[in-house]
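We close this part of the discussion by returning to an individual protein. The encoding preserves chain order, so positions in sequence and tokens coincide. The sequence in question and its structure tokens are set out directly beneath this paragraph:

===
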Amino acid sequence: MKLSKRLRKIEQMVTSDYSHIWDCCCDHGFLGAALLSRQAAKNIHFVDIVPELMSELESKLQRFYSNSESHWYTHCLDVAALPLLQHEGKQLIIIAGVGGDLMIQFIEAIHQRHPKLCVDFLLCPVHHQFALRQKLNELNFSLQDEVLVEDNQRFYEAILVSSAPDENAPITLVGDKIWQSNSDKQTDINKKYLTKTLDHYQRIQQGNTSDVSHIIDAYRAITL
């Protein structure tokens, strides 16, 4: 099973010693299966709200991972309703493949239900990255890691955060580490992404539907 560049990068960002990993909006379960193959956690949970997907995934997991050293579980439920308190140990919630607006709803609901629970989130929105970062900042989450990846001519920010505050690791509204580069190829990706993002917000500004001048200013302040 070959992962896309986006999913491979997300999979590589899972390095801490987690007891439970929740692969949310997991679709066909490719990411969770890759984590299961390398025993990234003692327990891997596959979560999606579509019954047909989960039934199909359950069959595949039983076929290929019946003897897995890591335990796996499938859950057909809303991400906002994850039964986090039923489990002990360090937990990671991965949400990818949906927009930042929906991620905000999930994160707010989880945080309201478990305000004192320390949990990590690995997020890779398909759009609305600025709004998502703004919400994470408001919730006083802290940054663990962030990367920018180009996959099939689309750009994705993958952001690993903790619900535990850390004044030395703030989540910036336009990203910080994602703009740093150690290769010409990554520098080119960064430039293309910055140009595309600025063009997007400038079109919105020209449409006069909303004032996004503060967002444009924030991206213009980035130096590559």
In short: Helices lie at 5-12, 30-37, 51-64, 100-113, 129-138, 184-206, 213-220.
